[in-house]
Amino acid sequence: MAPMKKKKTPLRKCVVTKEMMPKQQLIRVVRNKEGEVFIDETGKQNGRGAYLTKDSSVIETARQKNILSHHLKAKVDEEIYEKLLNIVNEEANE
After folding, report:
1. Is the separation of the CB atoms in 14 and 53 below 8 Å?
2. Considering the entire predicted model, what is its pTM?
3. Paired strand residues for 31
4. Of all residues in the chain, what percent are helix, strand and coil, respectively (each to 5)?
5. In this predicted model, what pLDDT tens digit does every residue of 27-58 receive, in sequence order?
6. What is the spatial order of strands in the sheet that 26-31 belongs to?
7. What's the rounded Cα separation, in Å, for the pair 62 and 3?
8. Sequence-ordered alpha helix ranges (H) in the chain
9. What is the DSSP string of 69-94?
């Protein structure tokens, strides 16, 4: 019998660190056709996505340099960054 093939972990690039990482270690932010920007917890929403490393310093960098707005070609509200920070902090405390 042939050996079982390992399933490849999907890698995505963080828009801040430019590092390739498994999707589980990243948060996806999406802009849909209507131009709404939101956090995609499932990773399966339609639209243009940008991935961020689950790290508060990375999210702060993205906020300061406006990286998400640039990547998604849409205005990203402050509240998106707040939600991202909350998600990261909750996971860090688990």
Report:
1. yes
2. 0.87
3. 37, 48
4. 35, 25, 40
5. 999 999 999 999 999 889 999 999 999 999 99
6. 37-40, 26-31, 48-53
7. 43
8. 56-65, 67-72, 78-92
9. HHHHTS---HHHHHHHHHHHHHHHT-
Q: Rounded to whole angstroms, how far apart are CA atoms 50 and 69?
A: 10
State both tokens at 79. Answer: 């509240």
Angle (deg, nearest 10), helices 56-65 and 78-92 = 170
The tokens describing 72, both together, are: 């998604």
Burial of 40 (0-12, 13-18, 19+ CB in 10 A): middle
Give per-residue pLDDT as tens, 80-92: 999 999 999 998 7
- Residue 47 and residue 27: Cα distance in Å, rounded? 15
- What distances in angstroms separate CA 37 from CA 10, 50, 84, one per listed residue? 23, 11, 12
Question: Within 11-66, where are the H helices?
Answer: 56-65
